[in-house]
Structures are given as structure tokens and as C-alpha cells.
Specification:
Layout (H helix, E strand, L loop, with lengths): L2 H19 L4 E5 L3 H10 L6 E6 L2 H9 L13 E6 L3 E2 L5 E2 L6 H10 E9 L12 E5 L4 H10 L3 E4 L10 E6 L6 H9 L4 E4 L1 E2 L6 E6 L2 E6 L2
Parallel strand pairs: 1-2, 1-3, 3-6, 6-12
Antiparallel strand pairs: 4-5, 5-11, 7-9, 7-10, 8-9, 12-13
Helix pairs in contact: 1-2
The structure holds ribulose-5-phosphate (5RP).
């Protein structure tokens, strides 16, 4: 199976999971990216189970609406039983790097509200140590250089993702060269840099259930 087929496999596994575990009439949290897109498509046959979805990006909102799932403002929603999203890397402790699609801040907000964060990924995303994938950091535009200097002081090599403006009107710095052995500590350090909106490290709020698609099918890893 190629990577796209593995993404399809986990997307369907996640749709089966929400069909079995999400309470009828609930609001679903839905992420962003190619794997999340396949998950949205797989929701079409079970869409009547949900009153709507909270989405982590404008792109996912459009896709949800195109299949007839209403997109709700998070400010009108108090409970999200399950949030399903992809990732760029996930380690054995279920900490993740996200934000390859520049949607990290809204993803973090939806994940914070959700009771359960189900992450879907093909096997290439599972790594022993996070950091080979450059860590995305969303930054207020006027603070770009100041934040870049602070990230260099932490040992990273930030590169501006030129031409990309997030749904929140900000810019992205991708931080190369990090070996993230303590994801919780690094997330706190980066989030405290003035001008940073958030980093793509999902460590304090990590994944609850990881569905990994590999040649032998879908493997499940849960938080212990
Ligand atoms: C978007 C994300 C995505 O979940 C992540 O980039 C994985 O994307 P894909 O499923 O296309 O590999 O964090 O901001």
C-alpha cells in the first residue's frame, strides 16, 4: 500500500471509531490536512449522527459544508466528545508535531476543548524522537524577526514560510534542527516567547488515541 492508501485506511478507521463512540447528536471536532480530508469524506454516510462540527480551518469548513455537515462556531459549543486530526510526527509518548498545513493554532484550540483527541496518520509519521519534521510556530507578523532570534537561542534554525498567511492573519516560522527529547518543556518555552501565538507541539495536550496505518492494517495506541 502506498502512503495515500494508508491515509485512506486510517481515515475510514476513524470514521468507524466515531460512529461507534461519539454520542448521537454530538458536535464533532475535525482537523486539517490530506488525512483529515479523507476522514471528512468518510463521514458522509454517517453525517446524520452529528448536529455539526467544529473545524480547525477554513479549508476543512468548506469541505464539511460540501457534504452537508454544518460548521459551528466554537463559542456556541461547550462539549466536543471527539476530535479527529492528522499529524506531521508522533512519538511513542503520543506527543505530536502538527501545523504542516498552517492550521496549528485552531487545531490546538479544538484539541483543548475535546474530551478525546484521535490522531490519524500513516506509519511514516511515527518517530522515536520528534523534530525531524520542522516544528511550525505561528507568529504575529511584526514579531517575526524577534521570535526567530529567540528560537535560534533555543538551538533551532527557524525559516519563514514565505507567502503563507494563517487563517488568523499570522505568519509561520518552521524550526529545523531540533531533537525534541522533552516536548512538554520545549512547548512551554516556545509559547512564552513574546510574539508567538502557539507552536505546533502537542505535548501538554497530547494525543489520546493514535490510529496508525501500516502494511498490516491499522494499529491503535492509546495513552496510558
Ligand atoms: C495541518 C496539520 C496536519 O494534520 C498535518 O500537517 C498532517 O497533514 P497530512 O494529513 O496532509 O499529512 O497539522 O496544520
Amino acid at each position: 500500500m502506498n502512503q495515500d492508501q494508508l491515509k485512506q485506511l486510517v481515515a475510514q478507521a476513524a470514521a468507524d471509531y466515531v460512529a461507534a463512540h461519539a454520542p448521537a447528536g454530538c458536535v464533532l471536532g475535525v482537523g486539517t490536512g490530506s488525512t483529515a480530508n479523507l476522514f471528512i469524506d468518510a463521514l458522509a454516510p454517517i453525517k446524520s449522527r452529528f448536529v455539526g462540527a467544529v473545524s480547525s480551518s477554513e479549508a476543512s469548513s468548506r469541505r464539511l459544508e460540501s457534504i452537508g455537515i454544518p460548521v459551528l462556531d466554537l463559542n456556541t459549543v461547550s462539549e466536543i466528545p471527539i476530535y479527529v486530526d492528522g499529524a506531521d510526527e508522533v512519538d511513542g509518548g503520543l506527543h505530536a508535531i502538527k501545523g504542516g498545513g498552517a492550521a496549528l493554532t485552531r487545531e490546538k484550540i479544538v484539541a483543548a476543548v475535546a474530551r478525546e483527541f484521535v490522531c490519524i496518520a500513516d506509519a511514516s509519521k511515527k518517530v522515536p524522537v520528534l523534530g525531524k519534521f520542522p516544528l511550525p510556530v505561528e507568529v504575529i507578523p511584526m514579531a517575526r524577526e524577534q521570535v526567530a532570534r529567540a528560537l535560534r537561542a533555543l538551538g533551532g534554525e527557524p525559516r519563514w514560510r514565505e507567502g503563507v498567511i494563517t487563517d488568523n492573519g499570522n505568519v509561520i516560522l518552521d524550526v529545523h534542527g531540533l531533537a525534541i527529547v522533552d516536548p512538554v518543556a520545549l512547548e512551554s518555552e516556545i509559547d512564552h516567547i513574546t510574539g508567538v501565538v502557539t507552536s505546533g507541539l502537542f505535548a501538554r495536550r497530547r494525543v489520546d488515541l493514535l490510529l496508525i496505518g501500516g502494511p498490516d492494517g491499522v494499529e491503535r495506541l492509546s495513552r496510558t
